[in-house]
């Protein structure tokens, strides 16, 4: 049964509010609409500023990482000291980068509070798996972080017994000042989630490959419903060589030296899989009969009348 109480706190558009009969409703709606437009423009400006700050922080991190790689090959004392300084700087920049990303996440959810829900968390999980399957690993890790953020918000809402939209700001306030234990739990959950995503993506790829291989196998099936690849691999080595070189006479010589029952068994499987296609005239004359040593089906076939292939 659908729990409609989750919609109790949805913000209703101010254009639908009831007004006092003495108030000029049209003018009031125009004013409210203008105020909302200005508010949205202000939000957009703030978001653009956050985006610029985050991009600049990422640029500094990349530059610092480049310098670190250059210094890692050096062995003199001054280079080691500079390396330690850059390592500390890189660590600080990563913290700043994470801080800006959190501000962007909070800003985005503030502007789109309706997305703070279980459905969004489920969507993000599926998206992560899709990205991993597509080998977009960097983007997967970014979305994985957003997924765990959403999960923590939902868990916080459950513990407080409130709508998730009413407490997501509390989560961001908490994580900004979180102690080591809380952050360690968050990061452990994030890493465990990414491993689960990689595992699910691997299973999905394996399933897709099996389905593709099965489709290809069905396409290969001969008139008797056998797979020519499987039949070829089951043949004795001397028969395999005949198909490798596409030599009909060599094939007839080989089966003449075999036990008649074995020869009949293998050649019938070759026909059923399409590895061996008897000539049309002989096929019509011998329709419904099994092929074997001494059978005119094989003895009267000329090399140019038969496609012997693996």
Residues in helices, as a percent range: over 70%
What do we call the CATH homologous superfamily of the largest domain? Cdc37, Hsp90 binding domain
Integer count of domains: 3
| Low-confidence blocks of residues | 1-20, 280-310
What is the CATH topology of the largest domain? Methane Monooxygenase Hydroxylase, Chain G, domain 1
Second CATH tier, the architecture of the largest domain: Up-down Bundle
- The total strand number stands at 0
Q: In the CATH hierarchy, what is the class of the largest domain? A: Mainly Alpha
* Termini Cα gap: 59 Å
- Strand portion, in percent? under 5%
Radius of gyration: 35 Å
Structural class: mainly alpha
Overall geometry:
elongated
Give the SSE string.
HHHHHHHHHHHH
Helix tally equals 12
Major sheet attributes: none
Mean pLDDT: 75
Task: Outline the fold blueprint.
Blueprint: H1 25-72, H2 77-111, H3 118-133, H4 137-160, H5 168-176, H6 180-220, H7 228-234, H8 237-245, H9 248-256, H10 260-273, H11 280-285, H12 296-299
Description:
- With 310 residues, the chain is mainly α.
- The chain has three domains: 24-115; 116-220, Up-down Bundle (Methane Monooxygenase Hydroxylase, Chain G, domain 1), CATH 1.20.58.610; 228-273, no CATH class.
- The protein has twelve helices and no strands.
- The two termini are 59 Å apart.
The gist of it:
This is Hsp90 co-chaperone Cdc37. Residues 78-216 form the Cdc37 Hsp90 binding domain. This protein has helices at residues 25-72, 77-111, 118-133, 137-160, 168-176, 180-220, 228-234, 237-245, 248-256, 260-273, 280-285, 296-299.
């Amino acid at each position: 049964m659908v729990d409609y109480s989750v919609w109790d706190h949805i913000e209703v558009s101010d254009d639908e509010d009831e007004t006092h009969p003495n108030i000029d409703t049209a003018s009031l709606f125009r004013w409210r609409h203008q105020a909302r437009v200005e508010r949205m423009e202000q939000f957009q400006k703030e978001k653009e500023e956050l985006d610029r700050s985050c991009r600049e922080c990422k640029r500094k991190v990349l530059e610092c990482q480049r310098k670190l790689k250059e210094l890692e090959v050096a062995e003199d004392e001054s280079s080691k000291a500079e390396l330690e300084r850059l390592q500390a700087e890189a660590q600080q920049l990563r913290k700043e980068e994470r801080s800006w990303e959190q501000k962007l996440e909070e800003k985005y959810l503030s502007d789109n509070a309706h997305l703070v829900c279980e459905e969004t968390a489920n969507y993000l999980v599926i998206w992560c798996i899709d990205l991993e399957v597509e080998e977009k690993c960097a983007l997967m890790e970014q979305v994985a972080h957003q997924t765990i953020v959403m999960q923590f918000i939902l868990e916080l809402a459950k513990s407080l017994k409130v709508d998730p939209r009413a407490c997501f700001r509390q989560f961001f306030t908490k994580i900004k000042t979180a102690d080591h234990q809380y952050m360690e739990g968050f990061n452990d959950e994030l890493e465990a989630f990414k491993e689960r995503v990689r595992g699910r993506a691997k299973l999905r790829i394996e399933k897709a490959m099996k389905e593709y291989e099965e489709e290809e196998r069905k396409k290969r099936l001969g008139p008797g419903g056998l797979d020519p690849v499987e039949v070829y691999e089951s043949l004795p080595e001397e028969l395999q060589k005949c198909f490798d070189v596409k030599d009909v006479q060599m094939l007839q010589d080989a089966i003449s030296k075999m036990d008649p029952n074995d020869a009949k068994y293998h050649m019938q499987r070759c026909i059923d899989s399409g590895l061996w296609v008897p000539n049309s005239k002989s096929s019509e004359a011998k329709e419904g009969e099994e092929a074997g040593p001494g059978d005119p089906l094989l003895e009267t076939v000329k090399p140019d009348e038969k496609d012997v292939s693996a």
